[in-house]
Design a protein that fits this description.
Layout lengths: L1 H11 L6 H13 L3 H6 L10 H9 L4 H5 L1 E4 L2 E4 L12 H11 L6 E5 L5 H9 L4 E6 L2 H13 L6 E5 L10 E6 L12 H4 L15 H6 L3 H4 E10 L5 H10 L3 E6 L5 E7 L2
Parallel strand pairs: 3-4, 3-6, 4-5, 6-7
Antiparallel strand pairs: 1-2, 7-9, 8-9
Helix pairs in contact: 1-2, 2-4, 6-7
């Protein structure tokens, strides 16, 4: 087992920033156990026959989350599949910012614009059991997976998902608005794991990566309840440009950094 994990990690060094972690996750998946169980006593397991095939898929740059069929995010596990944006650890910064703002009392109504597989909305509802929310996505596939994840997490009665284009057609106001829009410039090169597998519509946003912010931010005023907050994910070089858009729309802006110390989330409130 130790030899198989070491060899797989060495093979994956050319395609992954986390080759050992990838190897361990793939081995645990092949064994049908959680990674901690594998690490606790690897010697009690035999190398499964299909482990090599899983490593070969990763060697082809297929994302680990698609191979496993899930990605852990915040305190929840979300099912994912090709065509659905994979949740990123950086996006947990938005949940941290929301907790800093609302505390344990939490928001009552949550809106997730660009909800993907339900990532931010379901993480927020897991944090505040009394809250209800609505997720919006333009991808029918994403909405289907979000609904599936809500049901699996026992949140089907608290989380609704709708096929729509950002805030268009929405009525009512929300205490917390979460949004991880596309923010990558069209000319930016991405790793093959992302470029070849994940949906381009969830990644790219025009020549400067700001197209969707220009559409979303002016509409937030009518959707945000008094005393509420909107939290937007940004690229780590976009703090100034997105803040200017928000301030022009009448918001006060606070920036929160991710675990790597990079600008990652903007919290928008009414002054």
């Amino acid at each position: 087992m130790a030899t198989a994990l070491r060899d797989a990690a060495q093979r994956l060094e050319g395609v992954s920033d986390t080759p050992r972690l990838d190897a361990e996750l793939l081995m645990a998946h092949a064994l049908g156990v959680e990674r901690p169980a594998l690490l606790l006593d690897p010697s009690r397991f035999d190398v499964p026959a299909d482990f090599g095939a899983l490593v070969a898929r990763r060697m082809g740059h297929e994302p680990v989350a698609y191979i496993l069929g899930y990605r852990d995010f915040w305190t929840i596990r979300l099912k994912v599949a090709p065509g659905v944006l994979i949740p990123r650890p950086d996006s947990e910064t938005l949940i941290e910012a929301a907790i800093d703002h609302f505390g344990t009392s939490g928001p009552k109504r949550v809106l997730d614009l660009g909800s993907g597989p339900g990532t931010l909305l379901l993480a927020a509802l897991a944090e505040w059991p009394a809250a209800h929310g609505l997720g919006i996505d333009e991808s029918e596939r994403a909405v289907d997976w979000a609904e599936m994840n809500a049901d699996d997490l026992g949140m089907g009665e608290r989380a609704r998902f709708r096929l729509s284009d950002w805030g268009g057609g929405l009525d009512g106001q929300f205490d917390l608005i979460l949004c991880n829009p596309p923010y990558i410039a069209d000319s930016e090169a991405l790793m093959p794991d992302v470029a070849d597998y994940e949906p381009a519509g969830a990644l790219f946003a025009g020549a400067d990566g700001l197209d969707d912010y220009r559409r979303i931010i002016p509409d937030l005023g009518r959707l945000l309840a008094p005393g509420g907050a909107a939290i937007l994910e940004i690229g780590h070089r976009q703090r100034i440009s997105v803040s200017q858009l928000a301030e022009k729309a009448g918001f006060a802006v606070t920036c929160k950094q991710d675990l790597g110390g990079r600008d990652r989330a903007l919290l928008l409130t009414r002054p």
